[in-house]
Amino acid sequence: MRDGLISCTQRLLLIACCLLISTGCSTLKSAAPWHRIILAEEFSTADLTANYQWKDYLAQEDRLFAQLQKVVAENPRTDAYRYQQNSPLNSFNYLDNNRAFTNATAANQPKVINNWNRSFVLRPKQLRGGIVMLHGLSDSPYTVRSLALHFQQQGFYVIAARLPGHGTLPSGLLNVQWEDWAAVTELAMRELQTQLAGNQNIYFVTYSTGATLAVDYALSAQLDKKLPQPKKLVLLSPMFGVSKFAILSKSVDLIGHIPLLGSERWLTKQPEYNPFKYNSFTVNAGWQARSLTKHLEEKMTMVEKKVGLQNFPPVLGFQSLMDATVSTAAVEAFFAQKFQPHKNELVIFDINRHQNYLPITRPASTELFAKLFADGTPKDYDLVRIGNTDAHTHQVSEWLRSAGSTEEKETPLSLEFPRGVFSLSHIALPFPINDPTYGLEPDENEFYGIRLGNLNFRGERNTLALAADTNQRLNANPFYSYMERRIDEWLEAPQH
Fold it and tell me: Domain 2-367+411-491 is of which CATH architecture?
């Protein structure tokens, strides 16, 4: 049986090689600059020295973005979108595009950084603690911007780190390693500890791949008490459980290193019209995601055997029931680990179960719901569901099942599913409904070249560069205010 599996895999790779050879030669020369140019100033673990600190990373990032600006100027193209010099999508032009926004906040806030593709630091007026924030794969620090500005107002010193390979050219994900991301995570935590000067209120608030990195760091801190110790973790759409198909991506990536086949190191190449996320995705990025999650599974087992997980910091998680990027079941399995009992909480955003949607809803969502909530076994953590109050309304309630109990307590919320929204999504959670780029009701005082959250275009197909399903996947969280309030309570932050 095993020989049969190996033979099958070999045949698949042989077919893949034939397809790549037949297409690679014709596509390499025509590759766009953002698919082939490698920025030499990007950070990697090879840059680390004994004295390398966060300030050195920021200085290297300055050189990186200067190099990016030079590359953009030297490679003009009419189809460059966010990489056109005068495009409103170009992050180097944000200062002019949002002058009113910057001036409006300058009177009572620290200077607002307008290039949200870069790492940023927000300092509060009165210090309560500090938070390291990390974004997801192919994203940028803009992903955590709204939450970061809120935490600054609540008295937190915020460091939002740009993970290497992100915020510049999608080619940055061709060679990056997950260890590079982990190194920057540690740099940010050490810097936060220095800035807090003895204040022990250190937290993580992270999204997707950033959440995986936060857990990885927290496990390292269990073994090495000299590392800054996070007090609590907040994980949004944490990247646990990546498709096993990503295992094959390593072989495909190796094939892409063959001369004339470099263009085949991409899973997808798309026009880059999104100012804060890559639309194109490399094979290596998929492999690094798989490697990181596999590493985390092994590290969790190792730490449990060595010192146990009972002292692991409490975790608050938020997850969409239906998630096309990560496995919701794997997220729940993480919370079922042998952590401190009754110390953790998982919030699941259910799909819209209004009776009008039932006839066209696939059974998979109901099956996953039953697996998570119909189980009569008590859990060691609080399990919360945000879902319809009943099948006849779009209003939602909070359904809380406390740790150790099988009963749900309902609390009606003054929130509802917006018209036409049938579920949340992996990418929606960190963005408020009024996000200027991804919101359903974008803030008109800010503009970064495009409104991607409320697209309602009509016309002939094959006219626009946008993907066909761009306006179907939800980009913002209609229950963001609830999530923000729950995080405030979790972090013991002051309320307005």
Answer: 3-Layer(aba) Sandwich (3.40)
pLDDT for residue 465: 80
Identify the pLDDT of residue 181.
98
Which pTM was predicted? Answer: 0.89
Six token digits for residue 121: 């630091």
| Whole-number Å distance between alpha carbons of 496 and 486 | 13
SS3 89: coil
Name the residue among 22, 99, 7 with its Cα closest to residue 255: 22
Say how many C-beta atoms besides its own lie within 10 A of residue 267's C-beta.
16
Three-class secondary structure of residue 475 per DSSP: coil
Dist. CA 131–CA 228, nearest whole Å: 12
Cα 131 from Cα 158, distance rounded (Å): 5
Report the pLDDT value the prediction gives residue 250, as an integer from 0 to 100.
46
Contact 132, 161 (CB under 8 A): yes
DSSP label at residue 242? -
Q: What is the largest CA-CA distance in the chain?
A: 70
Give the pair of three-digit tokens for residue 189: 């935590």
Angstrom CA distances, 460 to 271, 426, 457, 463, 464, stand at 18, 29, 10, 6, 9
**How many angstroms separate the CA atoms of 196 and 201, rounded?**
8
Question: From the CB of residue 22, how many other CB atoms can be counted at a distance below 10 Å?
Answer: 9
Q: Give mean pLDDT, residues 400-405.
A: 93
The rounded distance, in Å, linking the Cα atoms of 303 and 219 is: 7
Q: Residues with Cβ < 8 Å from 85, sequence gap 6 or more?
A: 72, 73, 76
CA-atom Rg of the chain in angstroms:
23
Q: How far is CA 260 from the centre of its chain?
A: 33
Tokens read off for 224: 């090495």
For residue 363, what pLDDT band results from cuts at 50, 70 and 90? confident
Domain boundaries, the chain: 2-367+411-491
- Residue tagged 């990007």 (tokens): 42
Pairing assessment for the beta strands 156-161 and 120-122 based on DSSP bridges = antiparallel
Burial of 101 (0-12, 13-18, 19+ CB in 10 A): middle
- Count Cβ atoms below 10 Å from residue 316 Cβ, excluding itself: 24
Q: Which residues pair with 382 in a beta bridge?
A: 345
